[in-house]
Write a structure and sequence with these properties.
The protein has about 180 residues and is mainly α. Helices cover about 50% and strands about 0% of the residues.
C-alpha cells in the first residue's frame, strides 16, 4: 500500500506511514469502496434518516390517501369530542380528566382534514388544464352592418398636400438691417 501524501510504500496492515507519519488506516477501505459506504451510512444516521424512515414506513402502513380514510379520521375525532363531554357528564371522576380526550380528537380531525386536502391537491395535479380557446392574432373583420353607410352622392377632391406650403411663399418676409 502506498501513502497518499508522500507516496512511500508501506505494509498492508500499517496504520501510519513509515516515511511521513500520516494516518493510512483508512486507505485499504477507500481502495475497496467500503469507506464510502461507511461514511454514507454515518451521514444518513447523523442527519436523522431514521426519523424520516420511520415516518415513511408509517405512511406506507396507512397507504395512499383516500376519501374513506379522511372521513373516518374526521368522524372519529368528532366521536372523541362527544365521548369527552359524555365522560365529563356521567363518569365519576370525569371532571378531572375529560379535557385530555381533546388531544386525540384534535389529532384525528387534523389527520382527516389534511388527508382530504392532500387528495384535492393530487386531483389538481392529475387533472388536465381547462380548455382555453386560442386567441386570434388578427381580430375578425367587422360585419357589413357595422360599417358606416356609403356616401356616394358627391365627389370631393382630396385636399392638396402643397396648398399649405405654397401660401407661405407668397407672403413677403420683413427684413431688418441686422439680417444682412
Amino acid at each position: 500500500m502506498f501513502c497518499p501524501r508522500c507516496g512511500a510504500q508501506n505494509a498492508d496492515d500499517a496504520k501510519f506511514c513509515r516515511a511521513c507519519g500520516t494516518d493510512i488506516s483508512l486507505v485499504p477501505q477507500a481502495v475497496t469502496g467500503q469507506l464510502a459506504e461507511r461514511l454514507a451510512a454515518r451521514e444518513d444516521y447523523s442527519r436523522g434518516s431514521r426519523r424520516r424512515r420511520r415516518h415513511r414506513d408509517r405512511d406506507e402502513e396507512k397507504g395512499p390517501p383516500t376519501v374513506e380514510r379522511a372521513v373516518r379520521s374526521f368522524i372519529m375525532g368528532l366521536a372523541f369530542i362527544f365521548v369527552a363531554f359524555a365522560v365529563r357528564t356521567w363518569a365519576p371522576a370525569g371532571n378531572i380528566w375529560w379535557f385530555w380526550m381533546f388531544i386525540p380528537a384534535a389529532s384525528m380531525i387534523a389527520d382527516g382534514v389534511s388527508t382530504y386536502i392532500r387528495i384535492a391537491e393530487n386531483k389538481k395535479k392529475l387533472a388536465p388544464p381547462p380548455y382555453v380557446p386560442a386567441q386570434a392574432a388578427v381580430p375578425p373583420p367587422p360585419r357589413a352592418s357595422a360599417l358606416p353607410p356609403r356616401n356616394t352622392g358627391e365627389i370631393v377632391p382630396p385636399p392638396s398636400v402643397t396648398e399649405a406650403t405654397t401660401r407661405h411663399l407668397n407672403v413677403p418676409a420683413d427684413r431688418t438691417q441686422n439680417d444682412t
